[in-house]
Specification:
Length: about 425
C-alpha cells in the first residue's frame, strides 16, 4: 500500500496549524508571543471549560466535589465513559458513528457473569473470552460498514437492538457472586507498597511525580524536534507557563488521590494505559494518520493510496475491543451482571467525543479531547448528584451541554469559512 501524500491529506493537526498561522513568519517577539498564546488558548479551550465547571460545582457543593474520596469515585464511576470515548472519537474522526456500544457492554458483561458464576470459569479466562467476543462483534460490524458499504448508523442501530435483546435473553435475572479479585478491578486501589507519608499514599505520589516528569520530558523533546525540523514553536515563556500549569494540576489531583481512602484506583491505571496507547496510535502511526485522512477528505485519501475499507473495518474492530474492556470494568464495578447494564452508554461516549472537540463531519478530534469531554460529563453527573438533582434533570442538562458543544463546533466552522 502506498503512503499518503501530505499535500492531499489534511489531518486535524495541519488544520490547526494553518488556522493559527503556524509556519508563517511573524514579525516581532510580541506578535509571536500573542500568536502563540492565541493558538494555545484555542487548543486548551475545552480544558478551560472543564476547570470552570469544576470550580462552579465545587462552590455549589460546599467543597464536596473535590473531596479526596469523591475524586477517586469520579474516576471509578466514569472509567467506562473514558474507555468508550476513545474508541468513539476514532469512529467519529473516520466520519462514522456507533450506536451499539452500550448494548455490547451489556451483552459481554452478561457473558462474563454467566461464565464465572454459573460455569465456574476462572475470571481471567472469562475476561479473555469477553475480549475475543468484542473483537468478533467489531469484525461483524466492520464487515457490513466497510465491505458491504451499509451506513454505520444503520448497522450499529441494528446491532444495538440485536445485542440488547440477546442481553435480556441471556441475563434473565441478576448474576451475582463474582470473585472479589475481579470486583477489585473497578473498585479496588493499588496496594500501598511504599507506605504512607503523613496519611498520603506513597505509590500515588510516585505515580504523580513520574507523570509530571514525563510531561516535562515529552513537551521539551517535542519542542526541540520541531525547532530542529524548522517548524514554528511556542516561545520559551509559553512552554514554561504550560508546563507549570499542567504540573500543578497533576500535582493537585495526585495529592487528592493520595489522601483518599485507597490511593490510586486500579481502573485509573487501565484508563491511563488506554490514553497513552491510543494517543500514540493517533498521533504517531500511519494508521492514525489514515484515520484522519479518511475523515478529512475521503476522495483525496483514496487517490493517495489509503485503503479506506481497511481503515473503516479496523476502527470498528477496535471499538469492539474497547467495548469489551468497558464491559469488564462495568461488570466489575457493579459486582454482578444485569440485563440493563450499558443502557445509554453510547450516548455518554458520543457526547464525550463531541464535547471534546470532535467534528460532526469527521476528520477532526483528539483522544485527549474525548477524555476531557468524558470528565466534563462525569463532573456534571457527580456535581448534580451531590446537589440531589433529579436524574431526569441530569439527563436534560447533559443533553443541553451536548447540543451546545456541537453548535459551537458548527459556528466555528462557519466563521473560519467566511
Amino acid at each position: 500500500m502506498s503512503q499518503p501524500n501530505s499535500a492531499d491529506i489534511t489531518t486535524s493537526e495541519s488544520k490547526v496549524e494553518r488556522a493559527s498561522g503556524r509556519g508563517e513568519n511573524v514579525p516581532g517577539a510580541g506578535a509571536k508571543l500573542r500568536e502563540s498564546l492565541g493558538r494555545n488558548l484555542r487548543q486548551y479551550g475545552i480544558l478551560a471549560a472543564l476547570v470552570a465547571i469544576i470550580i462552579f460545582f465545587q462552590i455549589l457543593t460546599g467543597g464536596l466535589l473535590l473531596a479526596p474520596n469523591n475524586v477517586a469515585s469520579l474516576i471509578q464511576q466514569n472509567a467506562y465513559v473514558m474507555i468508550l470515548a476513545v474508541g468513539m472519537v476514532m469512529i467519529i474522526i473516520a466520519r462514522h458513528i456507533d450506536l451499539s456500544v452500550g448494548s455490547i457492554v451489556g451483552f459481554v458483561g452478561g457473558v462474563i457473569g454467566l461464565l464465572v458464576v454459573n460455569s465456574g470459569v476462572p475470571w481471567p479466562v472469562a475476561v479473555l473470552v469477553a475480549i475475543v467476543i468484542g473483537l468478533l462483534i467489531g469484525c461483524w460490524q466492520g464487515f457490513w460498514v466497510a465491505v458491504m458499504e451499509i451506513p454505520a448508523f444503520i448497522v450499529t442501530l441494528g446491532s444495538m437492538l440485536i445485542f440488547r435483546g440477546l442481553t435480556v435473553v441471556l441475563v434473565q435475572r441478576t448474576v451475582s457472586g463474582l470473585p472479589p479479585s475481579f470486583v477489585s478491578i473497578a473498585n479496588g486501589s493499588l496496594p500501598a507498597w511504599l507506605g504512607y507519608f503523613k496519611n498520603y499514599d506513597g505509590v500515588t505520589i510516585l505515580i504523580g511525580a513520574v507523570a509530571i516528569a514525563g510531561l516535562v520530558f515529552t513537551q521539551l523533546r517535542a519542542r526541540r524536534r520541531n525547532r530542529a525540523a524548522g517548524r514554528a514553536v511556542d516561545s520559551v515563556g509559553v512552554v514554561a507557563l504550560r508546563l507549570v500549569v499542567f504540573a500543578a494540576a497533576i500535582g493537585f489531583f495526585t495529592m487528592l488521590l493520595a489522601y483518599s481512602a485507597g490511593g490510586t484506583p486500579i481502573v485509573l491505571v487501565i484508563v491511563g494505559a488506554v490514553i497513552l496507547i491510543y494517543s500514540f496510535v493517533m498521533n504517531k502511526t500511519v494508521f492514525g494518520r489514515h484515520i484522519y485522512a479518511v475523515g478529512g477528505n475521503l476522495k483525496a485519501a483514496r487517490l493517495s493510496g489509503v485503503n479506506v475499507k481497511r481503515v473503516d473495518f479496523m476502527v470498528f474492530v477496535n471499538m469492539g475491543f474497547l467495548a469489551s474492556l468497558a464491559a469488564i470494568v462495568t461488570t466489575s464495578r457493579a459486582g454482578a451482571a444485569v440485563s440493563t447494564a450499558g443502557n445509554l452508554y453510547e450516548m455518554d461516549a458520543i457526547a464525550a467525543a463531541y464535547i471534546g472537540g470532535a467534528a460532526v463531519s469527521g476528520g477532526v478530534g483528539r483522544v485527549s479531547g474525548a477524555i476531557i469531554g468524558a470528565l466534563i460529563m462525569g463532573v456534571l453527573n457527580m456535581g448534580l448528584s451531590i446537589m440531589a438533582v433529579d436524574s431526569a434533570w441530569q439527563q436534560a442538562i447533559k443533553g443541553l451541554v451536548l447540543v451546545l458543544a456541537v453548535a459551537v463546533d458548527i459556528a466555528g466552522k462557519r466563521r473560519s469559512a467566511v
